[in-house]
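fold-stage: in
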Amino acid sequence: MSQRFKQNIDEVNGRIADAAAKAGRSASDVTLVGVTKYVDAEVTREFAQAGHRVLGENRPQQMWQKQEALTDLDLQWHLIGHLQRNKAKRMVELAVLIHSVDSLRLLKAIDGFAAEQGKVAKVLLEVNVSGESAKHGFSPGELPAIVEAAADFNAVQVDGLMAMAGLAGDHVDARREFALLRSLAETTAASGLPGNVKMQDLSMGMSGDFEIAIEEGATLVRVGSALFK
């Protein structure tokens, strides 16, 4: 299985490099987050030992369980799914990046827990670029006010934005939505940013559309099934 994982990792990295080259970018500008939500801790161990240590989980409990089972490995854990405020304290302790901040109340809670722990929590603001009611995230119009409010927090660093393409759309829709996220980041940065806000990262793209996302500016792609096939 480890050999299969190595082949999958190499294949996906090759696709990332091709997509980056097509867009005139360097593959080194894109971080592959291996999404382990459908596999258990032992399969995750084999995958990590095959050569990839940047991992993403949708559910906090699953991340915690796997992190506890794999403490002997040097892993970087990203939370890519919805986070409730009552789980934010432990997430601040373990995650190197929280992709899915979708409310000002959550951002404030993360800031408080990070301050208690004497650290600065790195986060992304999730934007609902598809407008689907089932999706979490700020509306594009809310973004300027949220960025302005972030200036009041001393223990949070906002590194950029995160989005998911709409469930009902095709690749044309996905490209439009990814382009919208990039445009929002550029417009927000151009309007002036607080010291703790940067628009340097765009987390967008999954197994079915990560190449399009890279062409539209993604710096983090969240890939699961293409790595665990």
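fold-stage: in (second)
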Amino acid sequence: MNNFIEKFNFKRIFTYTEFLNYSKTKIETKSEESVDGKEKIYLEYSKINLVRSIRIQKSYKLNPELKQYFEKIEEKQIWLVITEDWCGDSAQNLPYIYKYVENHPKIDFKIVLRDENVDILDQFYENGAGRGIPKIIIFTSSGKVLFKWGPRPAFAQNFVKELKQNGIESKTVNEKLHLWYARNKGKELEKELKNMLIKISSV
């Protein structure tokens, strides 16, 4: 299934495990003294997100009903994820999704970094809309787009929008968002994945 993805000429293509290892290596090789400004902030985000990702991956138990919907997938699919390791929404969502696809015989789960592939990836964002991440595009093996998802569950998206409209500063918005993620434990994401798979099955 990789041939279709390779035609885009992405600089790098990761499996989920490779993506986590990429983040771990970056964190281990960059000291806080060697970076400053925005890069230092993003490095700290990467550290936090790696811990989040590993914790969710270890603790999350598959939802039996949702698992059954994944098991109904009979045709090969490519799930292409656009993200960066400093992205908090990625750390709060991808580990849940990966638990369902990691051993799935029909799903090829691949990750590319947004910031090193911007020109290529803009085609996946509609009408010049921002480049929010994570962005997941689900393809058939021949390249037909079945579904797009991201950057976060609709409930969380509306929650963030409401906070910003009320003039809440970005730092507090992020704190409240991650508190919501911690309390929700992937339940809203499960609902969206179920609805997504139902729609895909009818295409």
